[in-house]
Amino acid sequence: MIVRLAVYLVLGVCIWLPVLGLAQTQAANTIVIKDHQFDPQQLTIPAGQKVQITVDNQDTTPEEFESFDLDREQIVAGGKQITVFIGPLKAGTYKYWGDFHQDTTKGTIVAQ
Predict the structure, then answer these.
(1) What is the pLDDT confidence band of residue 102, given thresholds at 50, 70 and 90?
(2) Whose CA is closest to 94, among 76, 68, 60, 75?
(3) Cis amide linkage into residue 62, ω under 30° from 0
(4) pTM assigned to the model
(5) Long-range contacts of range 62-68, CB-CB < 8 Å, 24 or more positions apart?
(6) Rounded to an integer, what distance in angstroms lies between the CA atom of residue 46 and that of residue 51?
(7) Contact 95/66 with Cβ under 8 angstroms?
(8) Which pLDDT value is given to residue 4?
(9) 78: enclosing H helix or E strand
(10) What is the pLDDT of residues 43-97, one digit of tens each?
(11) What pLDDT shows up at residue 103?
């Protein structure tokens, strides 16, 4: 009986925290790498919240998601995805790029 009650309590918290806006991380955002370019090139996220971003490399070659502003540097193998957690960020613009194709693979995250 106590175990069942605990399970119901945990499930209730998991269901209602996001609905009430009290969850720690926001729903995932996706940045796609295709033809050595980020899409979207500008991603807008809420300031002051921890955010989950999925980086989906649809190219066959690896790329790196790198940002001094965000203190991130992760390789994304060709045809693979990674998850990056950032924030909470102050309002502003944060640059990121693909280290292997710096001329074409660039983007910004805008926290507002």
Answers:
(1) confident
(2) 68
(3) no
(4) 0.73
(5) 62/100, 63/33, 63/36, 63/98, 63/99, 63/100, 63/101, 63/105, 64/98, 64/99, 64/100, 65/31, 65/96, 65/98, 66/96, 66/97, 66/98, 66/99, 67/94, 67/95, 67/96, 67/97, 68/95
(6) 8
(7) no
(8) 64
(9) none
(10) 999 999 999 999 999 999 999 999 999 999 999 999 999 999 999 999 999 999 9
(11) 84
Identity of residue 95: K
Identity (one letter) of the amino acid at 9?
L
What are the structure tokens assigned to 31, written together? 């940045």
Q: Would you say how long the chain is, in residues?
A: 112
Give the separation between CA 90 and CA 45, rounded to whole angstroms. 11
Judge contact between 78 and 57, C-beta under 8 A: yes
CA distance 21 to 46: 13
Pairing of strands 106-111, 42-45: parallel
The two tokens of residue 11 are 């499930």
**How buried is residue 76: exposed, middle or buried, by Cβ count under 10 Å (0-12/13-18/19+)?**
buried
At 86, list the tokens: 């950032």
